[in-house]
Structures
1.
Amino acid sequence: MKRFENKNVIVTGAAAGVGQQIALQYATEGAFVVLVDLRKPEETMELIKNANGKSDFVICDISDENQIKAMAVAVGEKCNGKVDVLVNNAGFNGKANLIKDMNLSDWNYTLSVNLTGTMLVSREIIPFLINNKSGAIVNVASNVGKRGLPYRSDYVCSKWALLGLTQTLALELVDEKIRVNAVCPGPIDGDRVEELVKMHAEVEGQSVEQMHKAWEDVPMKRFIDPQEVTNVILFLSSNDSSAMTGQALNITGGMLMN
Ligand SMILES: NC(=O)c1ccc[n+]([C@@H]2O[C@H](COP(=O)([O-])OP(=O)(O)OC[C@H]3O[C@@H](n4cnc5c(N)ncnc54)[C@H](O)[C@@H]3O)[C@@H](O)[C@H]2O)c1
């Protein structure tokens, strides 16, 4: 029997990037996966179909409470009221601004997706996890959930706060047998990190090559593969991590060690 056979898994931000890889892996390991994203996750659904997996989707902007409520109704119908795993992966980078130049609406928008959106999605999906009598939530934070980074205060603070949300939810749900953990990845190979490197190079007055090298300068001297993040998320939502809750695991090639 496959590891996630007969399990209902919800992945936000599943149309692209790491979320796509996470969703595909759950489906490959037997789960029925509901893909939640701003846009129709056509490519992800095609990949899952080609892997003989099962998926469905709900279009939802997680910065909007009403859309989240409607998404949860749709998820309840698709999953017969029972969810085993929620992966809160959707996230927004924010722009590059020092705090002295920070625009309040930019700050608020980043927090509304990364922090408030994650809280609201959790709030709406938790009843389906409770119905199931056991389950797991995995929040995708970041290495900057544990350190500062100039020009990115909105993103950084949203990810630090996500770890507070993770620990609090872990305590609130412990008696329901729902475990809540987070991952803190370093820069992940893909389109998004290339855009970020370019954005930082521009504001910090460096070449893209210099900035790339600086970001790769961790003990392992490389970025993280999306599959390496996916593997840890599946571990945190499987019985292999049955005594772990409220944890924030670093996946940073040695950049962070506590
Ligand atoms: N890429 C990295 O280097 C890196 C490093 C550390 C942490 N992370 C975190 O990993 C997660 C995934 O990042 P990624 O690199 O795959 O990003 P990405 O930009 O490639 O993909 C993000 C997905 O989320 C969706 N999304 C964005 N805003 C949304 C919203 N308001 N409502 C619903 N869906 C929304 C997008 O449509 C997209 O499909 C994010 O939480 C990010 O902060 C990424």
2.
Amino acid sequence: MDFKPYLKKLTPYPPGKTVDEIKRELGIEGPVYKFNSNENPLGPSRKVVKVIKELAKTVNLYPEASYIELKRALAKKWGLSPENFILGNGSNEVIELVFKALINPGDEVLVSQPSFLMYEKFAQIYGAKVKVVPLDNKLKHDIPGLLRNLSNKTKVVFLDHPNNPTGSVLDRKDWGIFFKNLPENILVVIDEAYGEFIEDPEIPLGIEFLKNGFNVLVLRTFSKAYGLAGLRLGYGMAEKSLAQLLDSLRQPFNLNLFAYKAGLIALEDQAYLKKSLKIVKEGRRYLTQELSSLGFKVYPSQANFIMVDFGSVCEHLYQGLLRRGLLLRPLKPYGFPNSLRITIGLPEQNQLLVKNIKELLG
Ligand SMILES: Cc1ncc(COP(=O)(O)O)c(C=O)c1O
């Protein structure tokens, strides 16, 4: 059979391991702590669980295909109109819709390295040429480097902000230089999967650029701050004609009933969101302090994870923690063999992690 030639080099996305996988593979009987996939350690909102239980009785019916209630609620939250929104089966799906809508084989997309791996993955699937620009020496998006790599074939620039896996962000000056020098026809996808965790008030958010008329698609997800990773719900905000085009390309029922209704409840549950942000911000400070005081390089992060350079003891710590049921994310696939990414956990989980690291260091 003749497969598409550009699919031959495709490698699968390396997802973080689940608790069951780890227990099976390593024969661990006790608890497993997930510091590896940037999930919410609080568990889901109780209000969401309640509505899911109620909805279970109606899964014989299709959901309402327009998803208008959730679009209206989001429009109210952001001061936009429902036509500015595209809802996706995770923000991942919205990323794919960008390729469906804009990319012809041979077009170029620009991504930082490292950044969220799915931009490159979809580029491979849709036959786009990927230009990768290394992060700068502070592990931030390299704005001059990105601008230097633009060409007349560039269609989209993907910027995860905060960046995954470093947690770095750009300041107003960086963004200013970027937009001043970027041709207007190039779409900038500002992926704010971790946007809720940005603490620094000086860091601009994508919504500001959208409202000021720049050619941007701002992505948000319910997987992180709202604790709904398993339901798969994310969205994009864009100027109406782009949002409507993306909406016309999705499957008719791309959100399942649970995700659609849970999204509405999660948006209302401000107490859950507040608690989840507090845990991340305090835990981020705690882990940064503790691991820095052990002599490791902790990169400044505005996300729900930190990247830590453990130097020569990285593999020893990773394996040792794994055997004890503490699961971290190795950053070798991202080009950092001596670094691990640690999702911020509950306070007692963070303390347990530090205690185990100290023990393994002897
Ligand atoms: C930067 C970034 N963007 C997008 C996603 C996808 O999130 P989801 O598809 O769960 O909304 C992730 C997931 O980890 C991510 O790290």
3.
Amino acid sequence: MDPETDAHLRIGFIGAGNMAFGIAKGIISGNVLPANIKVSAPSKRNFGRFQEIGIAGTNSNVELVCGSDIVFVAVKPHLVREVLNGISPYITDRHIVVSVAAGVTLETLQELLPENTSVIRLMPNLPCIVQEGALLFTRGSCAKPADGALLRSLLQHCGLVEEGPEAWLDIHTGLSGSGVAFGAGRVLRDSGKHPAQLRSEVCTPGGTTIYGLHTLEQGGVRASTMSAVESATERARQLGQKSTTRK
Ligand SMILES: NC(=O)c1ccc[n+]([C@@H]2O[C@H](COP(=O)([O-])OP(=O)(O)OC[C@H]3O[C@@H](n4cnc5c(N)ncnc54)[C@H](OP(=O)(O)O)[C@@H]3O)[C@@H](O)[C@H]2O)c1
């Protein structure tokens, strides 16, 4: 992707919360100017940290949409319907709408936006803020491969960005969105070693790490971790169902 393209894109975030801030921080560490990014929320209470990095805020989602090419929907899942209903009349074919709301499906997003809208569902996580995010996205039926490539290019400074099937997104939410576990994760990825091998390499017999691991095993860490990912995945599915049934 031509770096010049990114530099001229106008990017809007609906919602001024933690996730919007994390992605915005990641994006501006690339070549997008803060002046080309805007954020909207009903109150001004979360605008301070955006303003500190040169991003302006507005209380109008419509104003934000009209001045943006890429619109990130970063409100809580139960508010997505209301927010999309409000902006839908202002979405044109120049827009790409990217939702980060956990559990809200492409089907629901597309149903709430004008026909043929380029919609992308993205699941990021907070380490975007330190450019160490793990981001997975799925394109809606009208989002072209070029739209995906544009998003990927825009998010490249947020961390590892992959495109995958929608069925993976809830799992990614449970694993990476809810269970931020980088550090060891990066070593694992870069070394290509099996986790058990890596673990044994950091466990000097009788050393501090094996003592720590002993405590974790006593607490049933493996079973708890598996259950935690399962519960968070299930919750993501429940949130998606709620937003589908609430007409
Ligand atoms: N946090 C994470 O780690 C994470 C990871 C992956 C995905 N997500 C997804 O990201 C989304 C946002 O989560 P978050 O943690 O960033 O939430 P958050 O910190 O609670 O922020 C929510 C933001 O939405 C704003 N808002 C509320 N109603 C609005 C409306 N009608 N129009 C525009 N903005 C509105 C709030 O405004 P005020 O500032 O006025 O209160 C606030 O700025 C969620 O859907 C979540 O599933 C989060």
4.
Amino acid sequence: MSDQLKGRNVIITGAGSVTGIGAGLAYGLAERGANIAVCDINEEGTEKVAGDIADRFGVRTIAITVDVTNRAQMQKMVKETVSAFGQLDVMINNAGIIEHATFLDMTEQSWHRLMDINAMGAMIGIQEAAKQMIAQGKGGKIINMSSIASRQSYPAFAHYCASKWAVAALSQAAARQFAEHKINVNCMGPGIVKTAMLDGLDREFVSKGLTKLPGEAIHDLSVGIPLGRYSLPSDLVGTAAFLASSDSDYMTGQNILCDGGMVML
Ligand SMILES: NC(=O)c1ccc[n+]([C@@H]2O[C@H](COP(=O)([O-])OP(=O)(O)OC[C@H]3O[C@@H](n4cnc5c(N)ncnc54)[C@H](O)[C@@H]3O)[C@@H](O)[C@H]2O)c1
């Protein structure tokens, strides 16, 4: 395994779900040598993932409980990471939620919940990371988790799609804003990834009578993926490692889909 990220200090939000994308990236980037601040609203999850990574890869880790919608907590997260590791090199704004609702059933309440966590959380994460990276004066990498839903919108998840288009829009604006500081801001957009989020959606479909059997929704969502299967968090590590490393120094404001070919534009 390459040690292209050796000694790079990385924050990953939403990394406390053991089967989730954030945790998958935490393991994968640690395997490539990065020190990881494992951050999530789920305290127990952050401690488990951080402890496991330290044991397996011998890198430095820190577990931080944070709600990405809370500015003060996000500032504290950056501060604690810098005091533990010395500086912040890479920020991955990954925390997110999804909800199913037909277009006419979307409510203001669920709109605000999704927009707050997925979009405003990314906004605060970009801002707080950029402030720290500008103060350090050595550039940096900001990676925001978008989705295929940031390029195509689906009627059963319109508010989720809006929140992910917002992530892509914020990333482009931030890329232009911080280019002079050599801070690259890019998005990566998964397609169908088997995580707790997808399992929850699968259960929601059964409980609403939209599907009959557990696993059916994930199967239906995966039908027709050109590369022939849904993905796992480990499928996303290579793209994240590329965006976190100097290999992507001449790339900013991009939204790379890692979706098995689901969306081709
Ligand atoms: N699973 C997929 O198919 C898929 C596809 C495209 C994009 N994504 C995106 O990838 C990201 C991770 O999704 P996942 O599938 O790993 O989901 P997940 O539910 O497994 O993990 C999400 C994590 O975010 C955390 N979180 C939720 N609200 C938070 C908050 N306010 N503050 C801090 N942490 C919070 C949760 O505790 C959880 O650990 C999300 O942004 C999601 O929209 C997922």
